[in-house]
Amino acid sequence: MLNARFVAFGAAAVVAVLSAFAATGPAAAAGAYGPDTCRQGYVWREAFPGDHVCVTPAQRARAKADNYQGQYRVNPSGGAYGRDTCRNGYVWREAYPGDHVCVTPAQRARARHDNSRATGRYENSY
């Protein structure tokens, strides 16, 4: 059985590594990405293919972690939404219509917030 402190440290280490990767990923590289170029300090969220909503590197890492963990957050016995039914305490992220990755309510609220701020986070927005 794993020690709770080890598990907590392991999770923090994973987020730190993912955040570091997010800051150096393709959207953070120098160069123009056309109208989807993020302002300095932001990167593409990449919660799904083609997701060019600009977020902080930590939020991109969180979206990646949520995508991976989503498979463990569904209700194995199904429910009102069949195999898309989330376990208690989780909801659909809804970063785009049809996004049924199960996340915490706070992460869904964050995705909505980031979506609402998307246009102001592009390099060429005023």
Work out the strand percent: 5-15%
Described by strand count, sense and barrel closure, the largest sheet is: 2 strands, antiparallel
**Residues in helix, %:** 25-40%
Taken in chain order, the helices and strands follow as HEEHEEH
* Spatial sequence of strands, sheet with the most strands: 1-2
Uncertain segments: 1-31
Secondary-structure-based class equals: mainly alpha
Tell me the distance between the termini: 53 Å
Q: What is the count of helical runs?
A: 3
Structure summary, number of beta strands? 4
Query: Mean of residue pLDDT?
Result: 80
Radius of gyration, in angstroms, nearest whole number: 16 Å
What would you say this structure looks like, in words?
37% of the residues lie in helices and 6% in strands. The chain has helices at residues 4-24, 57-69, 105-117; strands spanning 43-44, 54-55, 91-92, 102-103. A two-stranded antiparallel ribbon has the order 1-2. The longest helix is centred in the first third of the chain and has 21 residues, at 4-24.
Question: What distinguishing features does this structure have?
Answer:
126 residues, 3 helices, 37% helix, two-stranded antiparallel sheet, disordered N terminus, single chain, two-stranded antiparallel ribbon
Describe the structure concisely.
The protein has helices at residues 4-24, 57-69, 105-117; strands spanning 43-44, 54-55, 91-92, 102-103.
